[in-house]
Amino acid sequence: MAVKGSALRDTAASIRRSAQDPLGIYLNDHLAGATGGLELARRVARAGQVPAPQPELRRFAEEVAEDREMLLRIMGTLGVPVRSYKVWAAWAGEKAGRLKPNGRLTTRSPLSNLVELEMLRLGVEGKAAGWRTLRELADRDARLDAGQLDRLISQARRQADFLEEARVRAALQVIAAAGDSHG
Asked: What is the CA radius of gyration of the chain?
């Protein structure tokens, strides 16, 4: 019985340490962001209303899903437990974000495209920062693959460029639509 009680205390202590681990907190926050970002990327790709080629939007959403899976693998490699409540909160937050007022009652506003592209762009920038942080750690932690992280950083740059081009087109559409309604 003493061994069982000791093992339970050791497990509880390990859980407390992991809850206070800055890297664990950081990676779980990135996982939460990746979860919300993936939901938004999938919705934008399905809606087909963003001024970007549909196949590229679908590919972007697939890459976001792959990036999230890579983050989960890295967390596993580092022994960082997933904090499910953060993942769930991010998922629910993205769903709640769909309820934002857009100035129209029954139709989608062109402004929604712009705002969603900006949110995705911010998410990609945050993801890139996370990859860069892990890349710095890779120089000191052999469990991290520096080459893989370099590829993820490069992919995030390409994703940000793609989103910026689409964001500019969406901004011009919003401005043109506003000009048409005032003219």
From this structure: 20
Question: Chain centroid to CA 133: how far?
Answer: 15
State CA 12 to chain mean position distance.
Answer: 30
| 153 Cβ contact partners less than 8 Å away, ≥ 6 residues apart | 128, 131, 132, 135
Check: CB of residue 153 under 8 Å from CB of residue 132.
Answer: yes
Q: Find out whether 116 and 94 touch, Cβ atoms under 8 Å.
A: no
Write the DSSP symbol of residue 80.
P
The domains located in the chain, with CATH, are: 22-182 (1.20.1260)
Handedness of CA 126, 129, 130, 131 (dihedral sign): positive
Q: What angle do CA 37, 41, 46 make, to 5 degrees?
A: 150
Which amino acid appears at position 170 of this protein?
A
**Per-residue pLDDT tens over the stretch 13-29:** 555 555 579 999 999 99
Q: What is the pLDDT of residues 108-144, one digit of tens each?
A: 677 888 999 999 999 999 999 999 999 999 999 999 9
SS3 label, residue 107: coil
